[in-house]
Design goal:
Pfam families (chain B): Ribosomal_L16 (PF00252)
Order of helices and strands of chain B: EEEHEEEEHE
Helix content of chain B: 10-25%
Largest interface: A-B, 31 and 29 residues
GO cellular component, one term (chain B): cytosolic large ribosomal subunit
Number of domains of chain A: 2
Number of helices of chain A: 5
Largest sheet of chain B: 4 strands, antiparallel
Mean pLDDT of chain B: 92
Strand order of the largest sheet of chain B: 4-7-2-8
CATH superfamily of one domain in chain B: Ribosomal protein L16/L10
Largest sheet of chain A: 7 strands, mixed
Strand content of chain B: 25-35%
Low-confidence stretches of chain A: none
Keywords (chain B): Ribonucleoprotein, Ribosomal protein, RNA-binding, rRNA-binding, tRNA-binding
GO biological process, one term (chain B): translation
Strand order of the largest sheet of chain A: 1-5-6-7-3-4-2
Distance between the termini of chain A: 83 Å
Order of helices and strands of chain A: EEHEEHEEEEHEEEEEEHEH
Family (chain B): Belongs to the universal ribosomal protein uL16 family.
Oligomer: heterodimer
CATH topology of the largest domain in chain A: Ribosomal Protein L25, Chain P
Shape of chain B: elongated
């Protein structure tokens, strides 16, 4: 994966009010941390960052104040309603240092089991791997063409890629093909049923006290 | 399938206000595409079921539809031509309380064009504005 360069500026303002003003000018706040060095508060142009994000890259050269640091995009906060990036976390990473991160799993081909009438379930959509920052794969492609009915592909059966180690549980299922389950028809009794009201059961002592009151 | 809780602590609930945006259940978690609400509101169990049925007519067998909301809230009403007072009415139907950003349905196993068509059918059954969203890349 190609490492792109991102221009950023140092920022001195912090707090929700200041950051809101910053976002109104088309910039987004970010933080650079790691390697037991001081945290650096940054800001960058939103459109420039989003363009880089769309390329699928995870490693960046962040430049600010005549400094250039290699960093991994650790976390992105989104506003899910407006679909905007709110904040970005960068983690300092050396290019010869192995990193742990999650990578999406993509399925390729049409399974034999599906042709026989089965249903393909993509259980694990992303997987945790360990690799060098220069060899981060965009995705891990898994061929499902030979996957028959009632069969599954586990993490241990994933294609071995050079310099990449799978961290997720080796026995975990990535994708499986199973028989389609027909849903039971709802009976009339079930349709007319009312939810049961949970009532606290009185303790033995309380019960006798209530009985005395009634008397 | 009738959507309502099996057991409840109280049969009747107060109406409550719906404030702010959804801070949870606001991402595509189970499928590839999701139908996200853009307005606050109540979605009745009947509307949810209508959406599911309309989607199942256009969906392929290998695709999977997930309903992300559940009608936990009971709504009571008084019978017609009844004088005011005499206590709260009986529960009539069940609703899911939805905030802007809540993911309502998710689909996996189909392409974007088909997902768009399916969600368009569901959107006609919804009482609020909705939109299609795609699963975000993991980090």
């Amino acid at each position: 994966m190609k490492i792109l360069e991102l221009k950023a500026e140092k920022r001195t303002t912090k707090g929700s009010k200041a950051v809101r003003k910053l976002r109104m000018t088309g910039k987004i706040p970010a933080m650079l941390y790691g390697h037991k060095q001081n945290n650096v508060m940054l800001c960058m142009k939103e459109d420039e960052f989003v363009r880089i994000l769309h390329t699928g890259t995870r490693m960046l050269y962040v430049t600010y104040d005549n400094q250039k640091e290699s960093a991994l995009i650790k976390e992105i906060q989104y506003d899910h309603v407006v679909d905007r990036v709110l904040h970005v976390d960068f983690s300092r990473i050396d290019l010869d240092e192995r990193v742990k991160l999650r990578v999406p799993i993509e399925l390729a081909g049409e399974s034999v089991g599906v042709k026989e009438g089965g249903v393909l379930t993509h259980v694990m959509k992303d997987i945790e791997i360990e690799c060098l920052p220069t060899s981060i794969p965009e995705m891990i492609k898994v061929g499902v063409t030979d996957l028959g009915l009632g069969k599954a592909i586990h993490v241990r059966e994933l294609p071995a890629l050079e310099g990449i180690r799978y961290i997720s549980d080796a026995e975990a299922v990535v994708v499986s093909v199973h028989q389609a389950v027909e849903k039971k028809a709802v009976t009339e009794e079930e349709l007319l049923a009312e939810p049961e009201v949970i009532v606290r059961k009185p303790k033995e002592g309380e019960e006798s006290a209530e009985a005395e009151k009634k008397v | 399938m009738r959507l309502m809780p099996k057991r409840v602590k109280y049969r009747k609930s107060q109406r409550q206000k719906i404030k702010g945006n959804a801070t949870r259940c606001n991402t595509v978690a189970f499928g590839e595409f999701g139908l996200q609400s853009l307005e606050p509101g109540w979605i009745t169990a009947q509307q949810l079921e209508a959406g599911r049925v309309s989607a199942s007519q256009s969906l392929l067998r290998e695709s999977k539809l997930t309903i992300r909301v559940f009608p936990h809230k009971s709504v009571s009403s008084k019978p017609i031509e009844t004088r005011m007072g005499k206590g709260k009415g009986e529960p009539e139907f069940w609703v899911a309380v939805v905030k802007p950003g809540t993911m309502l349905y998710e689909i996996s196993g189909i392409n974007e064009e088909m997902a768009r068509q399916t969600f368009n059918r569901i959107a006609h059954k919804m009482p609020i504005k909705v939109r299609l969203v795609q699963r975000r890349r993991v980090l």
